[in-house]
Amino acid sequence: MAEASLKELVSLEKYLGLKKTNKYSTQGERKVPVLQTKDGQNIVGLVTIACHLVKAAKQEQLLGRTREESAVVQQWLEYRIVQLGAPGAKEEGRSTLRDLNGYLEDKVYFGGDFLSLADILMYYGLHSYMVDLTVQDREKFVNVSRWFSHIQQLPNVQQHLPRVHIMKNRIYTNVH
Amino acid sequence: MMDQLSWMGESSLSTLRGDVTESNISRPESHQTVRSSNKRTDRPLETSLGYYLTSGGDEASTAVDQWLEWETLDLQPVALHALRLAVLQDKKSEALESLQPSLSYIERSLQKTGKTFLTSVDDGDERLLTDEEIQAAVQAWSKGLAACPKPRQIVHPILPQQGERNVLITSALPYVNNVPHLGNIIGCVLSADVFARFCRLRNWNTLFVCGTDEYGTATETKAMEEGLTPQEICDKYNAIHSQIYRWFGTSFDYFGRTTTEKQTEIAQDIFWRLLKRGFLLEDTVEQLHCQRCAKFLADRFVEGICPFCSYPEARGDQCDKCGKLINAVELKLEGRLEEWLETTLEKGNWTPNARFITRSWIRDGLKPRCITRDLKWGTPVPLEEFANKVFYVWFDAPIGYLSITANYTDQWEKWWKNPDKVQLYNFMAKDNVPFHSVVFPCSLLGAEDNYTLVNHLIATEYLNYEDGKFSKSRGVGVFGDMAKDTGIPADIWRFYLLFIRPEGQDSAFCWSDLLLKNNSELLNNLGNFVNRAGMFVSKFFEGRVPTMELNQEDQRLLALTTWELRQYLQLLEKVRIRDALRCILNISRHGNQYIQLNEPWKRLKGSDTDRSRAATVTGVAINMACLLSVMLQPYMPTVSATIQEQLQAPPLCNVLTEEFVCVLPAGHKIGTISPLFQKLEVEQVEALRQRFGGQKEATTTTTILQDVQELAKAVAQQVRTGTFDISSPASGLPGLISFLFKFQGDKVRQLKALGTEKAVVNSEVARLLELKKALQEAQGKPPVQKEKKK
Fold it and tell me: Region entry Disordered: which residue ranges (chain B) (predicted)?
């Protein structure tokens, strides 16, 4: 868990095109990631660090362009760490995916119609879920799969995670 | 519990919504989609908070993000868990324990930043001052002393004046019998004194009265002990109180006592009026009666278990722990009282604890309250059938305020029967609140004589001593008469006590903290600034204030000082004594920074422009010092006078207005400058802490001595009354052993309360059990093997 979040942040850096890799460490029982900035300050927390990196890379549009958009992005970032980051989340995996599937039915991205940090972190977070799904399930959660497939082929997103192959052809036609 | 969470969410949201001006804000739709059957998704809290924040125009910074994330991941699960434990499983202490780590984390973070908020930015010079403010400040400055109001001349007797603000201040009457400790002092007289001095500096027509509360059994008992009459005891102790308060620099207009003719007169008058209007009823109340001394036991001497909160050491009439009155009975004036309370609470400045306590008393409904007791030392009840009764202290004592004023001037009714023209402030500790907010107003309302009722009730919480409580018997804590002997000046005591004044919650007196505050705030901040400013004028300008040419930086400083001054005035008007003190320290801090930045000592050796700069800086600084001396007067009157003496400040400057005026113009000659404060050394303070810590070994020996003394007294008593018979099994040997047994029991209890090591306690308990066995043998009972539980 710990190393995973650190890897995520490193990947995020690369995605954002940040040249210098910052110093990371973890703290506490839950191995919360900690970033040490150049001026000696410590920034704690996955989402906090991610937002900080985005601002540092001057890609604030990834946090939403309007206030409503930023609120939605923040909501999904929070979801990421609370839902997907929590221990024991995997068991609830199916219901999580069901929720998300419903949400993504009419949206291209989590923020609606624009790519945001939420999509990237949700991608990192959901990867392990998607990997374990059977082909049948991937068809079942068709919207999640569609979104996932789209995100992972965006340039520079994939980084450290292996590609999840999602079939475009429907095999189990009578599921829906 | 989810309801609780969404309720929390609702209230947080509605608090934020209040700040936001957009009227068409509705919950973002995305909430609905996330709200599913899975309980963990039911938490769009931070998001909506963040949304409202940004809608209101505040930018969320990384620090804020970090705290919100910590709140989501760390605090919320812990809090929910604790809530579950507390509410569903009723394991309150476990719940609190589980919250400990999170609370410590917050505590540590707050300590590290040392600021008021978790994500505070240093607000020092960042204060936004508008140009108008700066211009206004410069204008005010140049007005000079001549344009300022003159300090009012005080002529006794002080009476309410037409068209003026008339302020009547009382401090809760200390019981004559007890030597006041620091907690009593800060709770009542010192707080009232600061406010009284402030009112006078504001040129308000102020009367500040107080006195000793002298009637009651405790005095009677003490008199017997010391072999004097109650009146003599009161005289002796009234003088002690008076002396202590004088040493602390309390500026009473009159310090009286309750044992006067006026007291009897006024109390009986109110009694008659209440009787005639049918507000009194006759009833019999259970009172504990000691057959041996044919006396009714004073409520204070009965100890037992509080029926409300199970505190095992509740005494007589008021439980120390939960404050509820046992056997509480009040006059039937509910309607009128509530009506009056509504207006007063709304318009008046009552401390939150006072409001809370009063409301909970009213909520329980008013019940009839017993106002007489069967005692001798008190105000007699003027009815035939009640000839051997006196008024109960809580009916009688507050009337002391009126009678003390009556002894000050026979025109007392102008203060006390004049609610439209007079603002009445009552200062007290929180345990006195119900009597001042419910019982006494009821008496006055019922008497229907247009009495002035309390407008502003200022109650403090408790002051503890180091880790425990003040205790005269155990020698723990500093008592009024001992403060002088420490060699620490009264003003330092005043400053520290006011700095830690227990306003929202209990606070504790701590010697090392006293040292720290003295050395850092007084010596290094305030004292340093005033001293430097003075020394520069002395050394470099031949003791005369130099000419000042204000540039932009100086003007800003004037505006900043004016701002702090206004904060101070606003805060003290609302009796927020602690906060106002910080304004003084802020100004001094700005002053130090100002001097530091401008380095006048260097510039003097420079060019002409440099030298004129140094002159201006010195001049402004010395005027700031003078302003500080006036602002400081309510808190540290002696230091204030010393500063003014050193600066040769004109006495007319002792008025507080909203403006910072140049009171020491160019050319003004100052006096000799010397340091205002002494550094306190660690060894000195450590020694004092030891002295007042109450030694444990000494206690044991004193207890033994006490035991022997008590035993001897008791035996002597028995011999005197002829009940002592050594041959009889009823009162002879068993009697002796039972005395020893009782006192051993007390000793064990005392040791346990002091937290003595188990081994010591156990050996004492063993002795207790031995005595018990011996007693039972002597009484002819077979020894029973039982474990004595305490």
Answer: 1-42
